[in-house]
Amino acid sequence: MRPLLILDCDEVILEFAGPFARWLREAREIELRFDSFALVGNMRHLSDGRPVDMQDFPPLLDGFFEHGQHLQAPAEDAIETLTEFARDMDLVVLTNIPAAYRDIRISMLKGLGLDVPVHANDGPKGRMVKELAGDRRAVFVDDLPPHHSSAAKHAPQVGRLHMVADATLRGLIPAAPDAHVRIDRWADARHWIRDYLEGTA
After folding, report:
1. pLDDT of residue 201
2. How far apart are CA 73 and CA 17, in angstroms?
3. What pLDDT does 80 receive?
4. Which parts of the chain register pLDDT below 50?
5. Within the chain, which residue ranges are assigned CATH 3.40.50.1000?
6. Can you tell me the distance from the alpha carbon of 163 to that of 144, in angstroms, rounded to the nearest whole number?
7. Axis crossing angle, helix 186-197 with helix 78-85, rounded to the nearest 10
8. What's residue 93's pLDDT?
9. Residues 154 and 129 sit within 8 Å (Cβ to Cβ)
10. For residue 138, what are the β-bridge partners?
11. How far is CA 32 from CA 18, 24, 39, 53, 121, in A?
């Protein structure tokens, strides 16, 4: 049975922070700064500098996933590395994008040469990581520490690699305490992933 690589999408396969900031400015006249890792607290209306209300954030995120995903480019070396991995392991995307926009994401990834299953999750990812991995040797890659904590709880046998593709965000997100390792670049991560899947990491 082939090993399995379970991948988040935003800030793992595709850049998110920069494209989201661009879409907010161009489509909604909102500035997104990265003074801290808190999207809502760093969003302000360009017209008068007012902070964006918490209740307005979900519709903005939905708007981006519906109309702005085309702005997302691959993380550095992501497509080349994952294409190489697909030769001898199975790949699956586990993303917290709303299900309504899953087909757009599938189309985006196919356009980049990644024809892989995409699961639209809601909330912590640990239970889905466990279900997807089953009895297989598997590695889970995600940018958010809480998802690694959830995976550690529900699927402790799965390798957990913490990755933040965006250089601006890397310094704002501490290394996930429940991940096995923090590696932010695919060129470096490929070695750890192969070692874990081969039982040598």
Report:
1. 66
2. 11
3. 97
4. none
5. 4-14+74-197
6. 8
7. 20
8. 98
9. yes
10. 4
11. 9, 7, 7, 13, 25
How far apart, in whole angstroms, are the C-alpha atoms of residue 45 and residue 92?
37
Chain centre to alpha carbon of residue 70: 16
Distance CA 28, CA 12 (A): 25
CATH topology of domain 4-14+74-197: Rossmann fold (3.40.50)
Per-residue pLDDT tens over the stretch 51-104? 899 899 999 999 999 999 999 999 999 999 999 999 999 999 999 999 999 999
What pLDDT, on a 0 to 100 scale, did the predictor assign at position 200? Answer: 73
Spatial contact of 54 and 40, defined as CB atoms under 8 Å apart: yes
Amino acid at 160: R
The answer to whether 36 and 42 have CB atoms below 8 angstroms apart is: yes
Helix axis angle, 57-67 to 17-28, nearest 10°: 100
Residue 44's nearest CA partner among 58, 29, 59 is 29
Report d(CA 199, CA 197) in Å as an integer: 5
**Confidence (pTM):** 0.95
Q: How far apart are CA 93 and CA 35, in angstroms?
A: 29
Label each residue of 67-108 as H, E or C.
Answer: HCHHHCCECCCHHHHHHHHCCCCEEEEEECCCHHHHHHHHHH
